[in-house]
Amino acid sequence: MLDALRHDAALVEAELDRLLPLPDSGPRRRLQEAVRYAVLDGGKRLRPFLLLQTARLFGLPPARALRAAAAIEMLHCYSLVHDDLPAMDDSDLRRGRPTVHRAYDEATAILVGDALLTQAFAVLADPLTHPDGDLRCKLLSGLAEAGGIAGMIGGQAIDLVAEQSGLALADIEELHAYKTGALIMEACRAGALLGGAEQQEIEAVLRYASDLGLAFQIVDDLLDAEGDTLAVGKPVGQDAAAGKATFVSMLGTEAARARAGELVQRAKDSLAYFGGRAAILQRTADFVLTRQV
Amino acid sequence: MLDALRHDAALVEAELDRLLPLPDSGPRRRLQEAVRYAVLDGGKRLRPFLLLQTARLFGLPPARALRAAAAIEMLHCYSLVHDDLPAMDDSDLRRGRPTVHRAYDEATAILVGDALLTQAFAVLADPLTHPDGDLRCKLLSGLAEAGGIAGMIGGQAIDLVAEQSGLALADIEELHAYKTGALIMEACRAGALLGGAEQQEIEAVLRYASDLGLAFQIVDDLLDAEGDTLAVGKPVGQDAAAGKATFVSMLGTEAARARAGELVQRAKDSLAYFGGRAAILQRTADFVLTRQV
After folding, report:
1. Looking at the DSSP assignment, which residues form a beta bridge with residue A287?
2. Residue ranges of B 82-101 with Cβ closer than 8 A to chain A
3. Which domain holds residue B118?
4. What is the three-state SS of A214-276?
5. Does B262 lie at the interface with A, CB-CB under 8 angstroms?
6. Residue A30 host element (H or E)
7. What angle in degrees, to the nearest 10, is found between the helix axes of B279-290 and B199-226?
8. Do B27 and A158 touch (CB under 8 A)?
9. How would you write the pLDDT of chain B (293 residues) with one tens digit per residue?
10. Are residues B241 and B229 in contact, defined by beta-carbon separation less than 8 angstroms?
């Protein structure tokens, strides 16, 4: 499965490289460079991988889902760039390199995020993504919902409030369902839509993605509590330092790891209907549990 | 024509009110309130007006172009909120009220812009905007291009560079073609597309919009140089204080006003083909020249 992840990551990397404008010699050069810096040569590409593998589950070859996969990754990268800003999480390091506002400047980082968010939608709207305009709009609506106030932006807003006032465990689960879960679910939904899945099949895939997304976030909290900066590629111990309520601070390390394990098992069970065809997605769930980055 | 502008602005205001989520009692309340603060109860609504009036030029009643008009205004408002941020233009006043980051905080202002950009696309992707998915995607592609690196974001990036290094007159025209012109052109293009215009008609409308957009920006520079804060609703004299190259600093007040006048005349001439049906759009061009806000 790690081979498949690396293989698809290379495909996605090449597609992103094609889709992002090359820096020209004009006054927008710095911005164009910063956009590429924010996206290329980094990350596990987990969300596009989930999209490509879900599409494959329904018989669609990766080449025909690659633009949608790149769009999802653009949206993910935009959210990282904006979340890292000084007014938000104020992070200096991302994927083992300085964050965009550290490598460039704050104004450029704001514009980079805006540009990536805009281009994610532009890529989906293009007929090259899929010949059917109604389907493209469904992908667009899904991405906008996952990225909007009912999704990632809402989650980040809750996260900002949470740092001040603290949250109960159910609130934290809700926060992460917005902040991380929505886009992971949308990746799988988009793959299923592109693959022509039936409603019932889409629902099975979404149950998988929902549990996977929450497990992913719990492991993120564990890595922040236990990992080391060099391996994780971003500063660790930030949550505790900020006095942030996390799964680890609420449940303790052991119970948090156990909860992630249960969620991963349930995610895998949700795909039982697909038999051996779902093997890679099931092993992806195991990877989410054991990952060190 | 001022009556038509006020009438359409009220329609757009009501549509925006319907489309923006009402604040709930949860932890996203502050963000939801700030989104509405950024959009409602302010502004001339010139871009949606141009969209509605162009649609009307081709026989489409406003009710059927209102969602697209609201989407254009959301995109415009997002760009104002982000451009006003401390790391960008650092403005305290907009439409006679504190800017979003002053009324709330910087993190909220970043998220408000992100949310409005996202929702603009969500509104266009929805079948309620138009039954034809391919046409909705055309509107989306146009808005993404006008808003992206080839449009507003690119213009803002040039503007940030320009403050340091200075620009020639041709560069300033290019900057504003990106920063202001692209969205004004897109408003007219979207109205024409929704109205079912022929290619030749779209081109005439775009010539009008291109000249109108540049005239609009020259008048903006004149108001910044000559207007007073109370009437304009935002601080004036900022360009000169920042040592910014503007049409006024390059051409002088008189030549700048003459150039705006020529552009407005040419804009009106571009619509001659439509005869009396284009009267409101032609009077809008006169308004752009004489406006005091």
Report:
1. none
2. 82, 85, 87-88
3. 2-290
4. HHHHHHHHHHHHHCCHHHHCCCCCHHHHCCCCCHHHHHCHHHHHHHHHHHHHHHHHHCHHHHH
5. no
6. helix A29-39
7. 20
8. yes
9. 889 999 999 999 999 999 998 999 888 999 999 999 999 977 899 999 999 999 999 999 999 999 999 999 999 999 999 999 999 999 999 988 999 999 999 999 999 999 999 999 999 999 999 999 999 999 999 999 999 999 999 999 988 887 656 678 888 888 889 999 999 999 999 999 999 999 999 999 999 999 999 999 999 999 988 876 666 667 667 777 677 778 888 899 999 999 999 999 999 999 999 999 999 999 999 999 998 77
10. no
Contact B127 A147 (CB under 8 A): no
Q: Which helix (H) or strand (E) element contains residue B253?
A: helix B253-270
Interface of A with B in 12-71 (CB under 8 A): 21, 26-28, 30-32, 35
Q: CB distance from A111 to chain B under 8 Å?
A: yes
Nearest-Cα distance to chain A for B250, in Å, is: 19
CATH number of the structural domain spanning residue A267: 1.10.600.10
Number of domains forming the structure of chain A:
1
The tokens for B116 are 């409005």
Angle made by CA atoms B131, B187, B13, in degrees to the nearest 5: 80
| pLDDT, tens digit, 9 for 90 and up, residues A64-86 | 999 999 999 999 999 999 999 99
Does the pTM surpass 0.80? The reply is yes
CA distance A139 to chain B (A): 9
ipTM surpasses 0.90? yes
